[in-house]
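Two entries, shown back to back:
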Amino acid sequence: MLNFVASLFGYLMNFIYGIVQNYGIAIIIFTVLVKLMLLPLSFKQQKSLEKAQKMQGLMQELQKKYGNDQEKFMQEYQKMLKENNTTMLGSTGCSGCLLNFIQLPILLGMFYMLVSPLTHIMKMESEDILRYKNELVASRKTEAIELLISNSGDMLSEEGLNAEITKINSADDSSFIDPRYYEIEIIKENEIMDLNFFGINLGEAASKNKDNLVLLIIPILSGGFTALSIAINNFINKKKGIVQPKPEDMEIPMPDMRVMNIMMPLMLFSVAYAIPQGVGLYWVTSNLIGIIQTVVQRIILDPSNNKVKELAEKNEIRNVEYEVIKDSENNINENVISENNKSKSLNNKKKKKK
């Protein structure tokens, strides 16, 4: 399934790379296109999560109000679900989770494509990839043997040196090439694709090149954009009055979100630090688009934002003014009718006296 999705995405990525001839720019354009494709699902997921957060807060209030009276609690809970036009599944955020499950094969397929670009993007035959891999492993084994000979000097006997050389030759391939990202290493070594992106080699991992500080840019951006996204969401939730319940107030123990808000950026930084920069660039681009999407969806397009509120208030004022004018006109008309009736009754009395 994931290989099928990765292969489909590979055709699109291959087309983009054929136009721009740069791996980094192709990743950015590809990520934007896929994010646009997932936009309807993302909107539904965000709405579902917002409703779930609101319902969780209301449910906490009901639990505090009715305590151990489960029958009354369930009556009020069902009433609350009906008033908010949602279901028990929606109130727990499970519908948002289901949308996540729909997106998961797509996102994992994208990851598979980026870690195996020769297979999925370049559509290279597996025999050719294996040949490149064996050549790279053999080259690195030769380098290791030459380094051993140059550094050993007279420290090892000929027998001991031969034993070490035998160990190197019989060592597993994973000792010389990353078993997960070896296709990226093959591209880097053989210059099959242009991996240079504004001075950053997208085939390198920061953890394996600690002296190259340029490789820290993408991991820092990955962690920084994640932290910014969390901060923006928390700010919007606070403005809307959506507050995450404290762990001690929850019947089912959940992780403290304050700790998670700190751990998530650090975790993504550490992962981006350990993987090739090309995969990290996808995460950075995806996080940046997610921030823009959050701002547009939850601030600009949200009907509860200040501008929309101001317009609504102006309409309410106009409606009130209209009602006041209408009421005053009605009062004037009623007064005129009343005066006319009084004058008619006086005239009738005068006629009777005559």
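entry 2 starts here
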Amino acid sequence: MKEFLETGKISGTHGVRGMVRIQPWCDSNEFLCSFDTLYLASGRALEVEKMVPHGTVVIAKLRGVDTIEAAEELRNKVISIKRSDVCLEEGRYFVDDIIGCKVYNIENNELLGEVCDVSATGANDVWHIKTENGIYLIPKIDEIVKSVDVESAKIEISVMKGLFSDED
């Protein structure tokens, strides 16, 4: 499992005193605001002085980033959190943890494919399942996804008619 998990992108500056706007890639702005340290791909740690939700973005003041020029240097940088800094509730997992999981039909244990990507649509996530016949999109809803075991990289789904074929 990855030590660092991508959780957003610095999309721009906010004001002239070095604050940045972060576009979160996590469940909520509040979740991102709960961290004291963020990380860049280079491994550079960014200590958070203040972080607050602001509409669909998060406004952050990072230690040592005190001018608009310094903030501008961070534009378009992907930020990550350390996995060890997070304690997830039972039954919750990171998107990174399901990428590569094998997907099985719960009725007959047939291997259908594996998760290769996830799209957030608003109402629910859509999982991209790579099969030998191509990539199929399945909604991550309780009627379809029956179990997710990231430890054994196994997902069981109920295959509804037409989900993996052109049937009506």
